[in-house]
Design goal:
7-stranded parallel beta sheet, 13 helices
Length: about 300
């Protein structure tokens, strides 16, 4: 069994090996996947998609592991997609998240997949949404999506996740960076991790003040700020309660349409780029832009119109 359609049907019945093979096909962007994409997308069972983002060193992976442990205690089957930064030369990645989450490796009700970003910006890989759809079809709920952690390019997750948790850590000076990067604008919940540090309470107060004034999404209630210590589990139950409270708002028609707009916009951009590259005029256009004989917008218009 190697065709994506058969793998999808097997994954839906609980075959973890088939799910793993399907995810490999997805990540490799195998052309045999294209005919079953409508089936893959329609096979979803309504899993709650939870994005975990924030700067490096804030403890995202440890927090995901702690959330998984608490969710399993509640009887949930948890899917995890962890996106790791990849080499700009080999496009390979060191899947460090697997090491941090080894405690869940023997649990058949936890399925974790590390993915290399392969040069994609925004903290996700190009095929993240397809991998999420596969986990959803396999009845994992919720699905935790941990972004790369590049600091100031993580807002893409808000176009995919229903609930976005921005993780900050005290004493790192990341609060101002977060507001500069727009991270607080995509936050549905802010978790100040490493809450046992002396400056944790002060960082939480500072973030609450920013969210009530300059930070946060216009016209929406400021995101709650929750102190957590992932290494001990302190605050994890409160974080899960905040995530569950957010579910109704996340699934409102307005929010669902907003996510659809973001996903469709990204898909259009990727499709247009692939078609432009496949077109014979691509290299000519690149040379014209490099030599300043054409500006990038005019070159793009010609490629799309040809």
């Amino acid at each position: 069994m190697s065709d994506p359609g058969s793998l999808l049907e097997a994954a839906r019945t609980g075959d973890r090996r088939a799910l793993g093979r399907l995810l490999t096909i997805i990540e490799n962007q195998d052309p045999t996947l294209r005919p079953i994409l409508p089936r893959l997308f329609a096979a979803g069972r309504g899993a709650h998609l939870i994005g975990i983002t924030g700067p490096p060193g804030s403890g995202k992976s440890t927090l995901v592991s702690a959330l998984t442990r608490a969710l399993r205690d509640r009887g949930r089957r948890v899917g995890i997609i962890a996106v790791d930064p990849s080499s700009p030369y080999t496009r390979g990645a060191i899947m460090g998240d697997r090491i941090r989450m080894m405690e869940h490796s023997a649990d058949r009700d936890v399925f974790m997949r590390s993915m290399a970003s392969r040069g994609e910006l925004g903290g996700l890989a190009a095929t993240t949404w397809q991998a999420v759809a596969a986990l959803d079809a396999a009845a994992y709920d919720p699905i935790l999506i941990e972004t790369v952690g590049a600091g100031q390019s993580e807002v893409e997750i808000a176009g995919l996740a229903e609930t976005t948790v921005v993780v900050e850590a005290p004493e790192m000076g990341d609060e101002v960076q977060a507001i500069k990067a727009g991270l607080l604008e995509v936050a549905d919940i802010v978790a100040v991790n490493k809450g046992d540090r002396p400056a944790a309470q002060q960082s939480a107060r500072y973030l609450r003040a920013m969210l009530s004034t300059a930070g946060g999404r216009v016209g929406r209630t400021p995101a709650p700020v929750i102190l957590t210590t992932a290494t001990t589990g302190e605050g994890i139950d409160r974080l899960i309660e905040a995530i569950e409270r957010h579910t109704r708002e996340a699934r409102s028609p307005e929010q669902s349409r907003a996510r659809a707009v973001n996903q469709l916009r990204r898909a259009l951009a990727e499709l247009a780029q692939r078609r432009a590259v496949a077109h014979g005029a691509w290299l000519t256009s690149v040379e014209a832009v490099a030599e300043r004989r054409l500006d990038p917008i005019t070159a793009a218009e010609r490629l799309l119109g040809s």
